[in-house]
Design a protein that fits this description.
Elements: H1 8-36, H2 40-64, H3 72-100, H4 104-163
Helix pairs in contact: 1-2, 3-4
This protein binds fe (ii) ion (2 copies).
Length: about 160
């Protein structure tokens, strides 16, 4: 098992981030329940509060994934890691436990999530691969330009030597 070198503050921020994300999703879901029950007023209160919770989550995310340290490739890498953890470790374990409790509804839910997390991981992977190819192509163009520039420079200095 990998050694956990995360500081308590990082761990707390991760927990707080998870909590605020959960509050956001939960209040959106509660709003749906309230609306279905005909209580539009309460639904609106939940939706407005959910909008605040996601901002709280963003505040934590800024500390966990500081903008100046992030790139699109890094975002994709983190996303692939998260989705891979879900389909390869988390959901299979949850599925196993649901199975031993005879909660077949939860087993079906876990199966669905395993498939979707896998799809997400593959989708992010293909976006990352495409981006990597794009960067490689750009690097080749830059290299060509650099060579061209160097050749021109060499030519000019050779001409200067002849003229001197
Ligand atoms: Fe909050
Ligand atoms: Fe996902």
């Amino acid at each position: 098992m990998a050694v956990d070198i995360k500081s308590p503050t990082i761990r707390n921020l991760e927990a707080a981030f998870a909590g605020e994300c959960m509050a956001h999703a939960k209040y959106r879901y509660f709003a749906k329940i309230c609306r279905a029950a005909g209580d539009e007023e309460t639904a609106k209160v939940f939706e407005a509060t959910a909008d605040q919770e996601i901002l709280h989550a963003f505040g934590h995310a800024e500390l966990l994934f500081a903008q100046e340290t992030m790139t699109p490739a890094k975002c994709l890498q983190y996303a692939i890691e998260g989705e891979t953890y879900e389909y390869a470790e988390m959901y299979p374990r949850f599925r196993h436990e649901a199975m031993s409790e005879g909660r077949m509804d939860a087993v079906a839910e876990m199966d669905e999530q395993i498939a979707e997390s896998k799809e997400h991981a593959e989708m992010f992977r293909s976006v990352l691969d495409k981006a990597a190819k794009r960067f490689a192509a750009l690097a080749r163009v830059e290299e060509k330009h650099a060579h061209h520039y160097q050749a021109q420079k060499d030519k000019i200095s050779a001409e200067d030597r002849i003229a001197a």
